[in-house]
Amino acid sequence: MILLDGRKTSNDLKDEIAIAVNSIKKNGGKTPHLAAIIVGSDGASKTYVASKVKACDFVGFHSTLIELDENVSEEKLLQEIEILNNNDAIDGFIVQLPLPKHIDEQKVLMLVNPDKDVDGFHPTNVGRMALDLPCFLPATPFGILELLERYKIETSGKNVVILGRSHIVGRPMSILMSQKRSAGNATVTVCHSRTKNLKEFTLQADIIIAAIGIPEFLKAEMVKEDVVIIDVGITRIKDDTKKRGYRLAGDVDFENVSKKASFITPVPGGVGPMTIAMLLKNTLLASTRKN
Asked: What's the predicted TM-score (pTM) here?
């Protein structure tokens, strides 16, 4: 069993991006600039955004963080997005999700300029992705592709089962894995909460991408020998034996499934770090396109 080390791979990527940024600066080019809007004080979101700012510093990007109160009006948030859309100094920006319930998430995502949508959530980018045209790929699926490529995992002709159909991971992965690309050309099945006889599908899978948000859902008896496991889930589980009072678990029963897997992502340290690295890669792409 080989661990798909997202921390190491993301650090390699950040080193490569830092070299590219240094070259841009040496040649008199503009330093890439990533902005983020965060609404409210959700601990996980704040930690995540802080790690993005730290990553920007590491690779030599400029970064801007806009923090808004959780009771901010939808109108005020939309105004902030328009300011970033019209600010030529900003190459790309994200609006950290989830948003408070009084704000229409879809309206917010629709307003983001597709040319600055480094999260890859705007319908323009999603449509271009589906048509295999140049676009910003959603950061988490982009990171999964990068892991598969860098570990030279064969995907062509393989049976890929995706657990979950979210717009952020499951659905984009189903499109990307079926396309003609180095990490693609697979036969893809999307399973979800209404799938009957789920185990019949997972037992046939050469590669399983688990993104359903149910901790330790995928058990060893549901997978075959030498399966490749990509675990996208991360959930806090109460654990009084830990200093923090909780532990982090993925959607896969790692302890037992790892004994049968040929490759598997750990949680934490697998897909998560890749998401941030690919956000930086999208921002670099946005900057070079524009400049």
From this structure: 0.94
